Amino acid sequence: MRPVTTGLQFPEGPIALRDGSVLLVEIKRGTLSRVAPDGRVSVVAELGGGPNGAAIGPDGAAYVCNNGGFEWHERNGITAPGRQPADYIGGRIQRVVLDGPGAGTVTDLYTSCDGRPLRGPNDIVFDADGGFWFTDLGKARARESDTGALYYARPDGSSITEVVHPLVQPNGVGLSPDGSRVYVAETGPGRVWCWDVPGPGRVQPAEGGVGAGGARLLHGFAGYQMLDSLAVDGDGNVCVATLVTGAVSVLAPDGTLLRQVPVPEPDPFVTNICFAGADSNTAYVTSSGRGVLYALEWAGAGLDLAFTA
Question: Looking at residues 75-98, what average pLDDT do you find?
Answer without folding.
Answer: 98
